[in-house]
Amino acid sequence: MFGRRKTMMGSKPPGQEAEPESLPKTEADLIAAIRAVEPALAAAGLDASLLDSLQHVQTALTAGRLVLYEDAAPVFVCRVCGEVARDQAPEYCPTCGAGHLTYQDFSATYYLEPEPIPELLAQLALTPDWLDHILSDVPPERTTQKVSGVEGEWSLIEAAGHLLDAQDLIAFRVSLFLTNESPNLSAKPVWEMTDAAKLSAHQIADRFRRSRETMLARLRSADPAYWARVGQHAEFGPVTLQQQAGYFVKHEQWHMAQITRIRDALVHHT
Fold it and tell me: Which of 50, 119, 253, 265 could form a cystine bridge with 150, CB 3.0-4.6 A?
């Protein structure tokens, strides 16, 4: 994932209040989920190397560090019988005999699943206007306010600042892809980035727009072959420019829901 996230438990639409969250939201939640599922996986006969991977991930999370690519190797699942393979899919499934292409690669995060390039460019182009709109009617003194029960530790200015930090990072990585055949995409935790939350809402929106428009101009004029260039990421392993762009689009669209909830709570808070 894109660095470490604070707790992001938002309000739910009417009728969903009783529904539990389907995925862990914090490191502590994820550690608890791993511990809960390990006995069942061991009893089901899961390969020992896969159980070791889970334990390595749990150790990394408990130590408060990023989970790196070598901590959790790629996993492939036979769609015929459910056989699980680590590192690479076999030529033939040892359980059912199905061929290599029946195995599905489960990426470390769905954010890395590739999307069509025209759709990525279109979605990247929409965000500046969306950010302008979402920040436009919130009084400056409210943007730093944290509303009890809405997104926990995040204020609106912090969440918007996080989008700017993310934009600065993807712009830097796009530059790496366009100038290097095999770029090194070192993981960069959010707490090591510039504190964009110290800016005003107007400054954040303006800087975001200028950075995004410059980046899009470079992407649109680049040779199409660049989208297939492969960089090496410490958390995710081999990643193409197309996957990186998709990752950041999905990351910011996830935060759109978060920012909308914070803004709505601020606007309607009395």
Answer: 265
